[in-house]
Amino acid sequence: MAPKDNKEGNDMNRNRLLNAELAHAIAAMGHGDLMIVCDAGFPIPSSAWRIDLAISPDVPDLETVLAPIAASFIAERVGYADTLPVHNAPLLAKLKRLFPDADFETTKHETILGEMAAKAKVIVRTGAFDPWGNILLYSGVDVPAWFSKPGVVAPDYYAKKMKG
Amino acid sequence: MAPKDNKEGNDMNRNRLLNAELAHAIAAMGHGDLMIVCDAGFPIPSSAWRIDLAISPDVPDLETVLAPIAASFIAERVGYADTLPVHNAPLLAKLKRLFPDADFETTKHETILGEMAAKAKVIVRTGAFDPWGNILLYSGVDVPAWFSKPGVVAPDYYAKKMKG
Amino acid sequence: MAPKDNKEGNDMNRNRLLNAELAHAIAAMGHGDLMIVCDAGFPIPSSAWRIDLAISPDVPDLETVLAPIAASFIAERVGYADTLPVHNAPLLAKLKRLFPDADFETTKHETILGEMAAKAKVIVRTGAFDPWGNILLYSGVDVPAWFSKPGVVAPDYYAKKMKG
Amino acid sequence: MAPKDNKEGNDMNRNRLLNAELAHAIAAMGHGDLMIVCDAGFPIPSSAWRIDLAISPDVPDLETVLAPIAASFIAERVGYADTLPVHNAPLLAKLKRLFPDADFETTKHETILGEMAAKAKVIVRTGAFDPWGNILLYSGVDVPAWFSKPGVVAPDYYAKKMKG
Amino acid sequence: MAPKDNKEGNDMNRNRLLNAELAHAIAAMGHGDLMIVCDAGFPIPSSAWRIDLAISPDVPDLETVLAPIAASFIAERVGYADTLPVHNAPLLAKLKRLFPDADFETTKHETILGEMAAKAKVIVRTGAFDPWGNILLYSGVDVPAWFSKPGVVAPDYYAKKMKG
Amino acid sequence: MAPKDNKEGNDMNRNRLLNAELAHAIAAMGHGDLMIVCDAGFPIPSSAWRIDLAISPDVPDLETVLAPIAASFIAERVGYADTLPVHNAPLLAKLKRLFPDADFETTKHETILGEMAAKAKVIVRTGAFDPWGNILLYSGVDVPAWFSKPGVVAPDYYAKKMKG
Amino acid sequence: MAPKDNKEGNDMNRNRLLNAELAHAIAAMGHGDLMIVCDAGFPIPSSAWRIDLAISPDVPDLETVLAPIAASFIAERVGYADTLPVHNAPLLAKLKRLFPDADFETTKHETILGEMAAKAKVIVRTGAFDPWGNILLYSGVDVPAWFSKPGVVAPDYYAKKMKG
Amino acid sequence: MAPKDNKEGNDMNRNRLLNAELAHAIAAMGHGDLMIVCDAGFPIPSSAWRIDLAISPDVPDLETVLAPIAASFIAERVGYADTLPVHNAPLLAKLKRLFPDADFETTKHETILGEMAAKAKVIVRTGAFDPWGNILLYSGVDVPAWFSKPGVVAPDYYAKKMKG
Amino acid sequence: MAPKDNKEGNDMNRNRLLNAELAHAIAAMGHGDLMIVCDAGFPIPSSAWRIDLAISPDVPDLETVLAPIAASFIAERVGYADTLPVHNAPLLAKLKRLFPDADFETTKHETILGEMAAKAKVIVRTGAFDPWGNILLYSGVDVPAWFSKPGVVAPDYYAKKMKG
Amino acid sequence: MAPKDNKEGNDMNRNRLLNAELAHAIAAMGHGDLMIVCDAGFPIPSSAWRIDLAISPDVPDLETVLAPIAASFIAERVGYADTLPVHNAPLLAKLKRLFPDADFETTKHETILGEMAAKAKVIVRTGAFDPWGNILLYSGVDVPAWFSKPGVVAPDYYAKKMKG
Q: What mean pLDDT is reported for chain E?
């Protein structure tokens, strides 16, 4: 890994996403589309668009992959397994730090493995050995950029985002 | 963008469609087939024929892409989200100017995202940051060219188009 | 195109690259790799990776496509046809504004059509009706980010970039 | 074939190119790219982009296919076999009528079969039983549209086209 | 098109099918398989095997394409839209001439667009601007060749074909 | 195999080519293109278009495959190995019967294995256990059909074919 | 075809399967998998694995193709159309000779065309003009080889095969 | 096979998995994903990811293939046909030795052929002539590695594995 | 591996080739085509047709894979590295036993890695840890079957094979 | 990244390679084949087998990717740019620690970009911002495992490895 002192020095750079296929996937996502960033053990369906970034156990971990994604992708909602608060609280805490503006919602673990894995536009595998470490990112939009044109009337549920 | 003075000077040229894949798609559409021209945030299904013309926010906008399409494609019907009249009236006004001869119809936004996106023969993505900016174009035919042969009897609903 | 008043308002956004395939291509380029951004009439070899953004004559023009690329891609060198200074001076002027830090070099027009078109990693077609409007972008690196680690010694030709 | 009376009635329509793949090919051609429109017996290389429009002997003939191409494609130069003037003068006469503004040039028949067939971007097969009926169309540009911007200086060889 | 005098002179040749992909399709059809030969405006499903022979309006027309097919393909049944007798009687008359030995049946226009288009093994597009000009050809067998071997007993419905 | 008595009875049918891919290949061949019909042991290059009709030793033999090809394909020239007259005279005799109008030429066996196998548009494998049983068929044209139009002047070497 | 005297001489060879794709298909079949060997007119679904061995009418016939398959493939069950005993008794007689050890069963003709064609792992087309000439071969196993290991207990229905 | 004396000498090596595609498949499996290692006669669906390691009867046998898989793959559960205990007890005994830590479960033979074959991520074919020799391996995780981080709470059913 | 006693019992079966892709490759080889059966460490070119049968070190070894190939493939010549006699004499001895009728020839090890690997039609990888264990099999023909027809004259170099 | 304390705790696990495609690539490499593990800026040829593991600047760095590769891949030789000792000495030091048993050699930087990039079987991209950070790994063999069989004579240059 990059030496500690370096990490502080160019935080801005750390967030620049380098992976070519991941850059493609993010640019291809529309409003409401689902990306799953998962741990090393997630059973990714054969029919999914799979981007495998796993190297070795816990390398890269979820935070390492989620951080640059969070910087170039507007996650309107972030979903996680209903077992996470009890069984992997440290991971949940990291998530809340990485996506301060997102709505959070829990999903049953079985639903993530089944319905959500089938629905995801892309599934990004990390090397994380993190139980229930499968994070659902729902693509949002840059609200002020979309609702500021003359004549465009934002619906109520975007009103507060416009003010903020 | 092309300098202002140039725009006026060769309006005829502006309408000539240059994009190779879009030219293919238009020539491949049959009577009643659906093309969706969408904003930058439309969740395009992975299985769709996707033509991505988006460059940067609002470039190209919907009008820029719709204008040359309108010139080489007969849209019998034009569909738009039921929320458009209230929430994005300026866009609706542009649509009516671009397709003066088409029938207009509203579709529920959820239906466009689901059933219509699945049914579309091709989905053309613009860079528009235009809420509900997803336009449904249903391919028509050149009525006089199709119904003027000796012995061919036009049905009632094409009668007025023949006279006009 | 986007209305004037909007353009000023979110200049920052205008530079964000939306096109999914172009985002992939840029992220896939290595140091020294060549991207050609060309006018609508460039004879793109059948074997090339072709990204066709042309819509109608002069839409989008070269500047519209080059601007967001310039914002997310470090062009170490920028090449253009040797005929450009005499025959299309306005385009050359735009180029110098878009890439203030790049080295510029001229290439014979025939060499661009032959050797360079064959060598390019990706060719991006605009709608520009701009004679000799075929721009060669050679990928560079973020010099300070690459040469600031302890023990790394920058070669002379990068020395000045480090100071700047 | 369409009845005689109809042919006269909508000449304008006859020229509208309907074929989807051919529309794609024409839109994909750049300045100087070569399209070969050939008779039914041309030995098309296996590696070529082949568009087979042949139906039965002499249907469609070369003129039927060349006419709508001529209407949507600017052929700067038109090439034909050096044997054509002596051995198939009627075909040559048709060519000159179809492309009144093009430069004409002869090519050795062997060169068409070998070097030119390998170089062509696309080869369109007709049903013509027309000896040496293999026509080379070199893509041109709309000279006034390309050279009329302020600051653009046309080279001498385009000067007369600008005036015309 | 081929000059009139020529048409008479080699009628035999006119029927020889030249198109390579169409020759493949015909040879691949089994007893009861469906081929649709359609007008230029038929909405061909994206999943269909599509052979696009359309050139320009009414070129080639349905008769031009059906004639050589009729000569190399045994159509046991020929289907057409139930609206054809009233709205396009001339086309129906041509059909009866082209397939003198076939059984004819009408199908609802909506069924052709939906169920039949999905079921067709191949769909051949002509340039015809002929309302309801979508003809269903069901592959038959050469009855005498199939039922004349010693010990083979033809079913009743083939009996008359054996005698004729 | 079909019973003897049947063979006599519908000789006409025996010649009708049923194989779908072979029908495609024949329709795709142009003047001078090369088809090789080979014995079961011919070393077909991996890059060739290979149609494998071999079933078991000597089934089908060369004559069985060549007969229907000869009926639907005009072979201008027929090539065979220079060793054939001495080492497999019976096969040469069959060839002369099957292609009564063709020119015959010998080619060195090594040239057939190397240069000719690489050049062939398609290679059709039979089950023949026939030494040097690799026949080269060069596609010709129907001379009278091609040279009878008014104004078309046949070259000398086709003159005699026109008369015949 | 191979001369008569030769046929007797190397019967053993005649059974060696030469076709590369058919060899692959047979080796890929598991216990209970279905292969259909069909006449020239069987409507093979577009989605099937199709091996087209048809050459001309009745060449090769069903026996010619079934014989080498029977020699390298253990057919546990052989299915045929319920109409075969009455309408094509000679073919049924051949089948019984070719597969002396198989169980035979009849299937409704409609079921073969529909459900069985969809279920078949591979469909092999012959040139047979044989009504209802579509044979269903269900892959079996070499019973003694599979059940003779110490500790392996054959079920009752394989008991008699072990003794035989 | 490798000589006996060698087998003892480098047991460690024997377990290193060499097959490239199998290495890929194992690394691609997530928690709960199913791999089937089957005998030579298993009817593998055409749509499956098939890795064919069969060479000749009983070579390689199931143990030979399962041993190196067992060494690099954590099988949480191992499934086998309900008929195995009675009809092929020696194979069941081997399984228990190869996967000492797994849970075992029986599945109806019909379910393995149908539902399980469709669900398997990959099916590995051995040469085994072993009745009911189709083994279901469900991918597990390295429990101590996944549940030892601070703040992670293992569920009850993994508790004992943590202690062990 | 299969138990010893079984090996003796069905030697005939052991030689039956089960692998589907290998069966395809052998059936696709023509006279003189080259198959390489290699050890686990052979650098197989990326462009080769690669059949990977390696499981674990020395499993399967070369003999295990060569034996069933030898039984279904006539190797006219067998090549091996010039270093084999000195450095791996036991392997050479096995080869001579497996191919008693073949001609043997040595090839420089470098030539096998370069020219021969590029020329091979298929490369079959075993698990053998056998230095220089890369065997070249050149496909031959069944001489008596090919040269016994009336009128066929075998060349001198096949004369002795005819007698034997 | 994984928390510090965890890193120490399961060093063994850290080395287990998780990436599915990389596992495939390593298992597919033969003796002498070249893998390049490169920094984020290496110009990877379009024709290469590219495995892109780059996430963000310096994540993962070269060491992070090289460590698990070193654990499952025997690198006989390790190559690096001739500029490395002077310009990036820290990276060279890491390399020597990671591959203690390999031979090291320098290659000119230009040769790595050209000849070596074209020759590499696979190129693995890291996120490293490390000048000249392109490492050449030449696949070796496990010498004792390959040369210990009776009758196998190791060449001199492997002699010392046998003893060690």
A: 89
Cβ neighbours of residue A146 under 8 Å, at least 6 residues apart?
A: A152, B41, B129, B130, B131
Residue D45 phi/psi, 5-degree rounding, is -60, 145
Here the tokens at position J30 are 């033969």
Q: Which of J15, J16, J50, J59 to mutate to test the interface with A (most CBs of A within 10 A)?
A: J59
* Alpha carbon distances (Å) from H54 to D82, I51, I64: 61, 12, 11
> How much is the pLDDT for H16?
83
Q: How confident is the model at residue B10 (pLDDT cuts 50, 70, 90)?
A: very low
Closest CA relative to residue A126, chosen from A49, A47, A66, A48: A66
Q: Is E85 in contact with E109 (CB distance < 8 Å)?
A: no
In chain I, the domains with their CATH numbers are: 33-142 (3.40.1650.10)
The alpha carbon of residue G14 and the mean position of all alpha carbons in its chain are separated, in whole angstroms, by: 16
CB F14 within 8 A of CB G58: yes
Cα(D140)–Cα(D40) distance, integer angstroms: 26
- Picking from D10, D15, D57, the nearest residue to E18 by CB comes out as D57
Res G12: pLDDT: 41
C-alpha–C-alpha distance, residues I21 and I25, integer Å: 6
- What's the whole-model pTM score? 0.94
* Residue-level length of chain B: 164
Which tokens in the block code for residue E31? Answer: 């007893």
Q: For strand J135-139 and strand J75-81, is the pairing parallel, antiparallel, or unpaired? A: antiparallel
Distance of CA H18 to the CA centre of its chain: 16
Q: Mind listing the pLDDT tens digit for each residue in A34-72?
A: 999 999 999 999 999 999 999 999 999 999 999 999 998
Cβ–Cβ gap H55/I17 under 8 Å: yes
Residue B58 — φ and ψ, nearest 5°?
A: 70, 10
The stretches in chain J having pLDDT less than 50 are 1-14
Who among F10, F20, F26 is closest to E28 (CB)? F20
Query: At residue B124, what is the residue type?
Result: V
Low-confidence ranges of chain H (pLDDT < 50): 1-14
Q: What pLDDT sits at residue B2? A: 34
**How far is residue I59's CA from residue I71's CA, in Å, rounded to a whole number?**
20
Mutant choice from D55, D65, D98 vs E, greatest count of E C-beta within 10 A = D55
Give strand pairing partners of B35: B122, B137
What is the Cα–Cα distance from F149 to F164, expressed in whole angstroms?
Answer: 17
Alpha helices in chain G (DSSP H): 4-9, 11-14, 20-28, 62-72, 84-87, 89-98, 109-111, 117-119, 143-147, 156-163
Helix axes D20-28 and D62-72, enclosed angle (nearest 10) = 50
Q: Could you identify the residue written with the tokens 């360079």? A: C116
pLDDT at residue C117 tops 90: yes
What's the pLDDT at G11? 41
User: Cβ contact (<8 Å) for H149 and J6?
Assistant: yes
Q: What is the least distance, in Å, from the CA of D149 to any CA of chain B?
A: 7
Q: Share the mean pLDDT of chain H.
A: 89
- Residue C92 C-beta-side C-alpha neighbours within 13 Å: 17
Question: With an 8 Å Cβ cutoff, are J57 and A1 in contact?
Answer: no
Distance CA C1, CA C127 (A): 14
Q: Is there an interface between F and J (3+ Cβ pairs < 8 A)? A: no
Kindly state the tokens that stand for C122.
């990706």
Average pLDDT over residues F98-115: 96
- What is the distance between the alpha carbons of residues B34 and B136, in angstroms, rounded to a whole number? 7
